[in-house]
Design goal:
Keywords: Signal. The chain is of the alpha+beta class and 133 residues long. The protein contains 1 helix and 8 strands. A hairpin with a 6-residue loop joins β4 and β5. It starts with a helix and ends with a strand.
Length: 133
């Protein structure tokens, strides 16, 4: 009887440990970076989305500012799919007021975003940029 209780305790502990060690599904990948003094047309580095999940590709900006007299108001970000032998594929432009822009779940490939435009000034910076895919 004593051995039975010990075995039940070990099994219960293993089950609890299994639940505690379970990790919820997250985006396939993400990276955190920043940019300083960007002009319209500047591009991020490329990342590879293997499309192993259903997560929306997104770019989240924080700490946005420009050198314009009216400060930062909004930026337009464009997502591109890199194609080697063809022109890159435009996945659409999103307006960003220093927050999150999302383009939905994308097919596998290499991607980057472009700072397409912003409202005032000649340069823009973002203290934090989180790219999730």
């Amino acid at each position: 009887m004593h051995m039975h209780r010990k075995a039940v305790g070990l099994v219960a502990g293993a089950v609890l440990l299994g639940f505690a060690g379970a990790v919820p599904a997250h985006a396939e990948g993400s990276r955190t970076t920043y940019f300083t003094g960007w002009h319209p047309g500047n591009e991020s580095s490329r990342w590879t989305d293997n499309n192993t999940d259903g997560v929306s590709t997104s770019v989240t900006l924080s700490g946005c500012h420009t050198d314009g007299a009216n400060g930062f108001q909004k930026a337009n970000l464009k997502l591109w799919k890199n194609r080697d032998l063809l022109p890159d594929d435009d996945k659409g432009t999103r307006s960003n007021s220093c927050g999150k822009s999302a383009w939905g779940d994308q097919s596998s490939g290499k991607y980057y975003f472009e700072l397409f435009s912003f409202t005032t000034g000649g340069t823009m910076s973002a203290n934090k940029v989180v790219i999730a895919y």
